[in-house]
Write a structure and sequence with these properties.
With 383 residues, the chain is of the alpha/beta class. The protein is built from 13 helices and 12 strands. The radius of gyration is 22 Å and the shape is globular. The model has no long low-confidence stretch (mean pLDDT 95).
Length: 383
């Protein structure tokens, strides 16, 4: 089989598809005015933004005024956590999990430095949170529960509807980072009792530098930056107009979820048949395009580079933290052995994946693992 080019890092970012790029280019040719300008062209740009906002709101069964455009998922997370803290200064207790994305986890660590009490709920060895563990931590002073919908490293799907019901019963705000689940899983905000949701456009074939925060009507949220009062006074600064148009257009991109899941499951079975291999995270409650796999006694970084030489792009974990080259906080939290943690890859499939490409991937992984194992001082027991 000749060398293929396989992009399998879709949890880090997805390709900007032609129809979205065309929509952005056509928009930029004519609608370059500042949407806050009062002349005709400015008003036309404003109308385009509000139409996009309405389309996004309808997609998640929300109201247009509940959609706040941001620079991406990280800013949306920060606005959610810091904004709710500023809006409710008498409550100083937050509940989150040990496997949150750094945008939530590190923000909580910063809020601790500012006097907040934060409980980090542990997960089981499949990466799932126990509702009862959250329930036990809720107290009179609890302001917010923040639990991500789908984990960015291991793809685990959390029971956010149950968490939303629990928070509603206890009159506690509920935030979820849905960056990895948006458009992959159904997300009807009213049914799930979610007060705040963070989304990033480039995770579903939209442009980078644009996202939004859904903030339920009546949520006591305050801005974290000030200026011109854009986005209902929650996010000042001239809007990323072309990004907003591109994000709204990306909602139309079709994905064959069943086909991707079929290839994902095929890959998992092939990987499980190899010696010294561990699939990390729940096999059942897992997003359909994610594989997090560990190979005993080798360096995942080295395997990633070997695969890169054959035209295969994967990652060793979260793109936001992979440059740090330290043990995955998520894999440690689910109890993965150290000699497996260091040999971990995250493979996240896109719309173009098929069984022929899957066979090529497995072949190259087997070759890479064999090469690295021959050099490793850590041998499997039967070797």
């Amino acid at each position: 089989m000749s060398e293929m080019n396989l992009y399998l890092d879709n949890a880090a970012t997805t390709p900007l598809v032609p129809e979205v790029l065309k929509e952005i280019e056509n928009f930029n040719k004519k609608y370059f005015a500042n949407p806050s300008s009062q002349h005709k062209l400015g008003r036309e740009v404003r109308k385009k933004i509000e139409n996009a906002r309405k389309k996004i709101a309808e997609f998640i069964c929300a109201e247009p005024e509940e959609i706040i455009f941001t620079g991406g998922g990280t800013e949306a997370d920060n606005l959610a956590l810091k904004g709710i803290a500023l809006g409710n200064p008498t409550k100083k207790h937050i509940i989150t999990t040990v496997i949150e994305h750094p945008a939530v986890y590190d923000t909580c660590k910063q809020l601790e430095k500012e006097g907040y009490d934060v409980d980090y709920i542990r997960v089981n060895n499949e990466g799932l949170v126990n509702i009862e563990d959250i329930k036990k931590k809720i107290k009179k002073d609890t302001l917010l529960v923040s639990v991500m919908h789908v984990n960015n490293e291991i793809g685990t799907i959390q029971p956010i509807e149950e968490i939303g019901n629990l928070c509603k019963e206890n009159k506690v705000y509920f935030h979820t980072d849905a960056v990895q689940s948006f458009k992959k899983l159904d997300l009807k905000v009213k049914e799930s009792n979610i007060d705040l949701i963070s989304i990033s456009g480039h995770k579903f074939n939209g442009p980078k530098g644009i996202g939004f925060l859904y903030a339920k009507m009546g949520t006591r949220l305050k801005p974290v930056n000030y200026g011109g009062g854009q986005e209902f006074n929650f996010r000042s600064g001239t809007e990323n107009t072309s990004g907003i148009i591109g994000l709204a257009k990306a909602l139309d991109v079709k994905t064959d979820k069943e086909k991707i899941k079929e290839v994902r499951d095929y890959l998992i079975e092939k990987l499980k048949s190899m010696k010294g291999v561990k699939i990390n995270g729940s096999l059942d409650k897992r997003i359909y395009n994610n594989i997090n796999v560990s190979f005993y006694g080798i360096e995942g970084e080295s395997l990633m580079l070997l695969l890169d030489e054959t035209g295969i792009q994967v990652s060793t974990g979260s793109a936001c933290s992979s440059k740090k080259l330290e043990e995955s906080r998520v894999l440690k939290a689910i109890g993965v052995d150290e000699l497996y943690i260091h040999g971990s890859l995250r493979i996240t499939l896109g719309n173009d994946m098929n069984l022929e490409k899957a066979d090529y991937l497995i072949k190259q992984i087997e070759k890479g693992v064999e090469k690295l194992r021959a050099m490793s001082p850590f041998k499997l027991e039967d070797e």
